Amino acid sequence: MSESLRFPAEWEPQSAVLIAWPHADTDWAERLGEVEETYIALVAAITRFQPILICVADDDVQAYARARLSSARIDMERVRFIEIAYDDTWLRDSGPISLRGRDGFRLLDFRFTGWGGKFEATRDDQLVEGLLDIDTFSNSSRQSIDFALEGGAIETDGAGTLLTTWKCLNERHPDASRASLDARLADWLHQDRVLWLDHGYLEGDDTDAHIDTLARFAAPDAIVYQACDDPTDSHHAELQAMAAELAALRTREGQPYRLFPLPWPQPVIDQGRRLAASYANFLIINGAVLMPAYDDPADREAAAVLEKAFPGREIVPVPCRSLIWQNGSLHCITMQLPEGLV
What we know:
By secondary structure, the chain is α/β, with parallel strands linked by helices. The chain has a single domain (about 1-340), classed as L-arginine/glycine Amidinotransferase, Chain A, CATH 3.75.10. The protein has helices at about 30-45, 60-70, 90-95, 115, 120-125, 125-135, 165-170, 180-190, 235-250, 300-310; strands at about 15-20, 50-55, 80-85, 95-100, 105-110, 140-150, 155, 160-165, 195, 215-220, 220-225, 260, 270, 275, 285, 290-295, 315-320, 335-340. Strands 3-2-1-18 form a four-stranded mixed β-sheet. Strands 4-5-6 form a three-stranded mixed β-sheet, covered by helices on one side. A hairpin with a 2-residue loop joins strand 13 (about 270) and strand 14 (about 275). The protein is globular, with a radius of gyration of 19 Å. About 45% of the residues are buried. The model has no long low-confidence stretch (mean pLDDT about 95).
């Protein structure tokens, strides 16, 4: 099975999306009402196209979430609840990384350290094992890997090319050389090319420059990325340098990538702290792209860029201003599950 394993691209057919419902014992407690509205909008958007699995902490959380979603007239036939313990709701980083094989799936379970020990993450680190123990997935096995890696730090084209950032991987593993990290990522994720970005960051981001806030594959020959065209903005130099790096990358066939720059939203400041609003943190699902919206004039332009990058898919804005208060956005709270896994 190992020789035939492949890391699917996000745009490939999915069986469901996995999320975790926010509740009063998570970091969302202070603004729980606001973030619940975002989760309701997210579930409504996903269930238009495919099923969703929702982790809930206990019976009370499940009953509450079911009531809120039902009252929003969501198709509950496409909603499945899973009772399991979790610290927080960033399932992009604590959820399973799925490799597809000829006869099933291998779920990679890397160590989740709360982004380098910034936050408590013991229960989140046990999430993948717990989901398998209660038979959440079909035809799958778990591979535990004693190496800190988050799903938001990696991006694949589904054809053997991985895109990631040096800043994040170096922060997690400061004693490892780039060649060593390159080889290990390629081996575990069954990739034959690893493309590194040395530039790009967002203020308010505590992931140490996850790739899914900066640059994303839209096809094996196309990359959508967060641009900054405001020379007075503190991000301008870094994101311009990142754009130049992306322009220098080549596809497997030796051609430049088709590049789709996303507009730069106005700064979002909360209690003196700038929040990490990125349009690159979108989620691809069956037939659609869910786009983080920030109640900003640039939302419309971002949707137009995504329409060009993903022809034939509906672009569905999801209000995400409440999410960036906790330093993440739409892609960060979700994990797609390939077709056949559920």
